[in-house]
Amino acid sequence: MTDTFQTVADFALNRAAQEFPDTARKAAALMLLDTLGITIGSGPMQAGRIARESAVALFGAGDPGLSARMLFDGRRVSVAGAAYAAATQTDNLDGHDGYNPTKGHIGVVVVPALAALAETVQDFSGPEALAAVIVGYEVAGRAGISLHDTVSDYHTSGAWNALGVVAVASRLRGLTAEQMRQAMGIAEFHGPRSQMMREIANPTMLHDGSGWGALVGISSAVLAEKGFTGAPAITIEAADVAPHWQDLGDFWQMEHQYVKPYPICRWAHAAIDATRALMRENDLTYRDIAAIHVNTFRESACLFQGMPDDTSKAQYSLPFAVATMVAHGRIGVENITGAGLAEPLVASIVERISVSEAARHSDRFPESRFADVSITLTDGRILESGDVHARGGPEAPMDETEVIDKFMEFATPSMGASRAAAIRDAVIGLGAPGSKFSDLGALIYAPADQT
User: Given a cut of 70, is residue 289 above it in pLDDT?
Assistant: First the structure.
């Protein structure tokens, strides 16, 4: 066992809940709440329904001790199947949190894993739930950075966030350090090293591979618990990635996640925010705008062009997102589903938008997400935004109230205000002494239409 892995194991398995800083635990509660809001909001969407039905069809549990209810559904499947269904569902409403250096997402698997694993162990404290969330974020984030730093292709989050799931499972199920090591090796070997830019070029329900990351992570932990072995995870144990793990327990990635104001690929957010700011500052409506030009980083410029014909393309489309903001001053689930995909006003604005790569923005990716926008008005004037960074992360954070309001916006249509508020209060209350995960668990497994 390498020194780096021993450090990871000590952090994940042995650090007591009260030893995590209050700031990290507060951030964990907010990211847990934000992710649950997206899980709820995505429940009625086609991808979520397919994922849950597929989990019932394919991932049933023969061992009651390894079964779990699916989030906001209630049907029992295997613990891995429950995590898969919720992660796939959440991944298909692109409003969940992320971490710039990983170029991807962590909460989308950590929260489903926590909820599924909680069904297989005895009840645990609220602070322990937050500690498990922190462990998942800190391990997954560093695994993602290590992978991106050592391979030539750009892999989806599922390729590395599976290791964060293993960390959560190992902590909650009481695995030994050696069992966790084997589980990490299994998860890394079987993790979906799917190509992100392939999905960007052809947007589908595959999204960021996180459903399979959750499935692989839970499955790997169970395999290792039963004695299955795996080759050491090189994203942890290889000598050239050791620097990425040296600050574990000192620098808290948990506190540096971004929250998305819109259910759209993060790569489009800087352009959306720049457009939004110009319109607000100059009291503009769509009637005042003749043309919009966006300069952005290369990956953002590769997002889907034109008018999307399905939800996946809508969430991976920069022009559509900007046009929706121009038309409505907001972007909600209703804009990326159903009739929102064929709205004539939005389509007419999309035709006025052009996108180019700017080298200065590309040079700052992935650490930053910058764009600048030029709006030509119908009277001939040209307004320039200057360089704008996407809101929601450390560079331009949303405050706690905004995150909570976002949860209520996404959760209330399916949950109703009373149950949504109860979930909100239970999540925020997890940090309190004497709280239990079951305080939240009692609210999150029943179908969305049940109070």
Answer: yes
Share of the chain above pLDDT 70, in %: 100
409 contacts 261 by C-beta, under 8 angstroms: no
Fold of 3-260+410-444: 2-methylcitrate dehydratase PrpD (1.10.4100)
Q: What's the CATH number for 266-389?
A: 3.30.1330.120
| Contact by Cβ (8 Å): 59, 80 | yes
Name the residue among 347, 373, 348 with its Cα closest to residue 292.
373
User: Could you say which DSSP state residue 206 is in?
Assistant: T
Q: Where are the domains of the chain?
A: 3-260+410-444, 266-389
Residue 450 banded pLDDT, cuts 50, 70, 90: low
Q: 149 in the Ramachandran plot: left (φ > 0), alpha (ψ -120 to 50) or beta?
A: alpha
Give per-residue pLDDT as tens, 5-31: 999 999 999 999 999 999 999 999 999
The answer to whether the bond into 366 is cis (omega within 30° of 0) is yes
Radius of gyration of the chain (CA): 21
Residues 50-70: b if buried by 16+ CB within 10 A, e if exposed: ebbebbbeebebeeeebbbbb
pLDDT band at 449 (very low <50, low <70, confident <90, very high): confident
CA dist., res. 314 & res. 318, Å (int): 8
Q: What's the pTM?
A: 0.95
| Mean pLDDT confidence for 231-248 | 97
